[in-house]
């Protein structure tokens, strides 16, 4: 039986603008909605409907690029931390009781 080579391109994460695609895409949609509501609410006043969401988007893309360069799986670790946070509550010492969490209906 021959060994099949594993291509590194298949293991590489998909990045948009150099950052995680879920983070960049989600913030892009939020900033587009913010720009649209600012355009409808304020009109063409001082171009703020472009500058404010654009600045927020570029700032988040900069942070997303730094995160992706450090560890491409960092956003998954953060989301898992938020998802399982109630099950692994911080304890001051090892003998402390676990929190009583009802995760299903009786």
From TrEMBL:
Protein name, as recorded: Conjugal transfer protein TrbD
Organism (species): Burkholderia aenigmatica
Keywords for this protein: Membrane, Transmembrane, Transmembrane helix
Superkingdom of the source species: Bacteria
Keyword flag Membrane: yes
TM spans (from-to): 21-39, 45-64
């Amino acid at each position: 039986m021959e060994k099949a080579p594993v291509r590194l391109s298949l293991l590489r994460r998909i990045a948009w603008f150099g950052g995680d695609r879920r983070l960049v895409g989600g913030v892009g949609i939020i900033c587009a909605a913010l720009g649209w509501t600012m355009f409808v609410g304020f009109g063409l006043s001082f171009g703020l409907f472009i500058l404010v969401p654009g600045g927020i988007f570029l700032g988040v893309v900069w942070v997303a690029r730094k995160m992706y360069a450090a560890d491409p799986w960092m956003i998954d670790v953060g989301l898992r931390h938020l998802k399982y946070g109630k099950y692994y509550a911080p304890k001051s010492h090892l003998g402390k009781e676990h929190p009583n969490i009802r995760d299903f209906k009786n």
